[in-house]
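Quick question: what would this complex look like in 3D?
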Amino acid sequence: MIELTLQTLSFLAAALLVIIGMAGMLYLDNLIKKLIAFTLLSDGVNLALVSLGYVQGGIVPILEPGASLSDFPNEAALIFGPGIVLTNIVIGVSTTAILAALIVILYKRYGTLKASKVLKGEHE
Amino acid sequence: MMVFPAAMGEITPTVVAFLLGIAIGTQFVARLSRRTTLLILVMSVVAAFLFEAPIHTWSLLGGVLAEHVSFALPFISATIGLLVGSVLRGSRRLE
Amino acid sequence: MDIKELKGIRGIIAAIALVIIFAGVLSSFMQLEGNVTRGISEEYNKLAYRVAPNNLASWVYDYRGFDTLIETGVIYVGAVVSVLVLGRGLVGLKGVDDEERVVAEPMDLKTETMPVLLKYFALPVVILLVSYGLLVVTGASTSGGGGFQCGVIVASAYLLSVVIYGKRSPFNLKKKTLIAFGAFGWGLYTMLGLPGYLTTNYWQYNVGADLWSWVPSFPGSVPEVLRTVFGEPFKLALELKEGVFYATSGIIPLINIGEAFNVIGAICLIFFAFIYGWSDSEEGSGK
């Protein structure tokens, strides 16, 4: 039996988000819904990266007034994950913008948001 | 080297926020009435009281004048900077 | 594929496939648990009392400083590609020009018919949001915050103003202003790699770079007050259990300001392209 720590739970939530996003991208027809599912998937990956730095009984990696200098390096959460997530968010913003722009163009061209019709080249 | 406690992390952000406020405030084209300006200033003071001073800054008010009361001075100075910047550029009244 | 097609045996196969992928993803996540080497970020945790209370800022802008510089260009790629795709139509899909273009209704709102709450409180809220963004960027080294967050907050203020007031938006960021903001921000970020290079021969070595090192050092060349308040920008007194330490985060807060301008420019450009279009809108949305 796996011990249910906070890290385990957040990994579980991250895997759920990833799988919901993947299911939405694969099985849903609407392009906007596919875009939303894509952002959910990227959120799941972000959550997994953030929970990598979890330290049992730890504190935020910000020196607060009255913090102990000797305990801080051991107690503070690892900043590796959030640092990578910052990159990931920036890339997510630009990817979402490009995808939304492409959806607008597809809508102007085909008059529909259904991926099945767009793939077959049908007009609404 | 400590000059005076308020200088530690308080004055530089306040000045920088004021300058940035002027830079962005020149992009506001609305000319504000006196009542709205007063409203914004009062709301900024209230908001600054709610945000409190950032950690590790020895606030100008907190600890000097009154214990446990601290204002986020960058917030107030940024608001004043925005108002000053909008006055510098303001040309159109928003009805 | 539509969700309605997933009936019967196909639906069962799809569900089983999802469960298998879920098990794979979850087990690979679980193997990471407790297996992370504490490595470089623990070094930065140890350095925290000499640099900046917010460890993440010093890590992102020092250890990953050059990387973050390139990465902020990525958001520009997003903005530029959105503008190209939406605005000038360089994609040139066949048949786009033959068909009737969908012309959006001009975004405008008569302020006479506006609810009283929106009429009197929208502009103060926009101004206070911008101030909040500036507070976040100036407190970047001490609390959770930074350039990207400030940029997003200011861009949301811009979006709020545009949505409420339409083309007569009081927060009137023009195309050229946005491009200038972004260029200024990225240029500032790049140029702030210079002090670190001059002092340590490493580009974007940002922690502890002394802005006054080029001044010949003799007593009284730089007044101590000036050096404390501006010379080592954003110097702090950390009250810790072991005593009071004086930490200076070097030029990290200034880099955050550069990044904030960069992000304001890029995200507002994306909003601008999506709301007004690019080639259709006249120069200056407020006219």
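Answer marked as accepted. The CA atoms of residues 14 and 73 of chain B lie 6 Å apart.
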